[in-house]
Amino acid sequence: MKETPLSNCERRFLLRAIEERKRLDGRQSYDYRNVRVSFGADYGCCVVELGRTRVLGQVSCELVSPKLNRATEGILFFNLELSPMASPSFEPGRQSELLVKLNRLLERCLRNSKCIDTESLCVVAGVKVWQIRVDLHLLNHDGNIIDAASIAAIVALCHFRRPDVSVQGEEVTLYTPEERDPVPLSIHHMPICVSFAFFQQGTYLLVDPSEREERVMDGLLVIAMNKHREICTIQSSGGIMLLKEQVLRCSKITGVKVAEITELIQKALENDRKVRKEGGKFGFAESIPNQKISAFKMERAPVDTDDVEEQAEEIITKADPPLDVFAEPILRLPGTAQIGEGIENSWGDLEESEREEEEESNSDDVTASEDQKMEVEEINVVSETKKDDPIVLSDSEEEGVVILEPEKTSKKTRTHTNAKQENSSSKKAFNKKRKKKRATR
Amino acid sequence: QYVPVKGDHVIGIVTIKAGDIFKVDVGGSEQASLSYLAFEGATKRNRPNVQVGDLIYGQFIVANKDMEPEMVCIDSSGRANGMGVIGHEGLLFKVSLGLIRKLLTPNCEIIQELGQLYPFEIVFGMNGRIWVKAKTIQQTLIVANILEACEHMTAEQRMQAFAKLSER
């Protein structure tokens, strides 16, 4: 079945959005989507989700006779399959160009970089070696198959355990998992691919392109790196001309991203190992939640509204008026008894909190504010409320009193992406303080 | 998967321009055909300005399982009534069919609340496609994201989200 064509309207919109540094799902240019790794019941089986792109990886092994010209090395075999389940444009049975390209890239990345020690896979030289086979299936295509597949491959290989063998002279004994614990593969390093999509002849660059972005991109650059900052593979396709600085910048970004992803993988592997050791439940039945049509997918909603808020924040921080709007409520406040200097959300601003302390006269909060000063130094959100002031009002009051406005706005624009977290944690802190105050009274 | 129904208004993408007719992809199993005369004010001399890849808002006049569906951009009295080629700016995205029906009920709260945020143009296709255009790309993206998320939010979560946005 043919996939839906990309309309001119969409193409134009996407390119214009990229020129303004906006992406459809609210990410920044260098942001990755959420990576989630879950393991199956068998060793060597894992599912990696990169946003909505899902890849299933399975590793299996078998004893075979080695290749003639490499008698002491084991054999590694990679296979990536694109099923029609992933996207209507993938037809079964046909070897498309994309498939060949992806397979070749994966092979180069994992085999040529010698991340697996093939010598250790040898059982009897020239007679019996282990053949490790990595099968990757693309379950859903939402862009950036290469990254997801490379992560799935390396995670599956790290997770896999092969049966133990012992050699006595000419006799080879293969132990079942019950007799002896299976042995993990010896992996030197974990190469991970990071993709960069280029637009407008190399002017704009996006990391981790989604499916729509892939359709309008000019070219793709894939860099495979491990956490020791060694480049394992570089591939540039699409025929765009890249400048040296661009490639260097991409490799720096890759270094950062690979470090993050490697850490995530280690944590996931560690968790799985712990669960298995403690005898808890493991496997897909536990890790992949039930998705029903009738149930609300709570997980997704918060992410989307977060993005929306961030985007809205961007509008606001660009425009100046909101500060004036905040100024209005100041006038109302002096009329009430609660002269709260209390600020809900100071955006982690140290100067503000120090000034708040000077102006506060309520003994109730003196000790509390000292605690909070320490908190602020940890860059946690400060909440120093005296009474039940709504957030907006106290915020504005602070602005009205102190001539810190220019700095404050600049701080705001810089930290706008963290606004949501600070807001939500400020609310939590606010509630805690409320309860604390009620308790002390 | 969308199944064409006679009388349904849908958003389609022009894929092939073949002499007298256009082939339009509507997200169903078959592409619909659209004659160039089925536009308001179109005559043999005065052809409508439609290119491959353009977005079309039209309705089905023939849609059964035996024949290829046919659509037109003109209603029974010969007037366009909002149908035709959709403008060049704006964003097209897909949502589920159920959400479209919910949004098209009269007095839908979501649309009214959105309308109070900022002005925008919106076209709903019964095949699950929505076209949005607001003043800036930022606002367009916000509207699109909210509509996609509305499917999974309860009414209270929606109120909260709108409240946060309108505070700014």
CATH homologous superfamily assignment of the largest domain in chain B: Nucleic acid-binding proteins
| Estimated structural class of chain A | alpha+beta
- Cα-based radius of gyration of chain B, to the nearest Å: 17 Å
Strand order of the largest sheet of chain B: 1-2-3-5-4
- CATH classification class of the largest domain in chain B: Mainly Beta
Radius of gyration of chain A: 28 Å
CATH topology of the largest domain in chain B: OB fold (Dihydrolipoamide Acetyltransferase, E2P)
State the helix count of chain A: 13
Extract low-pLDDT stretches of chain A. 292-312, 316-333, 337-342, 348-405, 407-439
Distance between the termini of chain A: 70 Å
* Whole-number count of domains of chain B: 2
Would you tell me the overall average pLDDT of chain B?
84
The geometry of chain B reads as elongated
* Overall pLDDT score of chain A: 71
Main beta sheet strand tally, sense and closure of chain B: 5 strands, mixed, barrel
Organism (chain B): Pelodiscus sinensis (Chinese softshell turtle)
GO molecular function (chain B): RNA binding
Family (chain B): Belongs to the RRP40 family.
Keywords (chain B): Cytoplasm, Exosome, Nucleus, RNA-binding, rRNA processing
Question: Which terms summarize this structure?
Answer:
heterodimer, A: 441 residues, alpha+beta, six-stranded mixed sheet, four-stranded antiparallel sheet, 13 helices, 14 strands, elongated, B: alpha+beta, OB fold (Dihydrolipoamide Acetyltransferase, E2P), Ribosomal Protein S8, Chain: A, domain 1, five-stranded mixed beta barrel, three-stranded antiparallel sheet
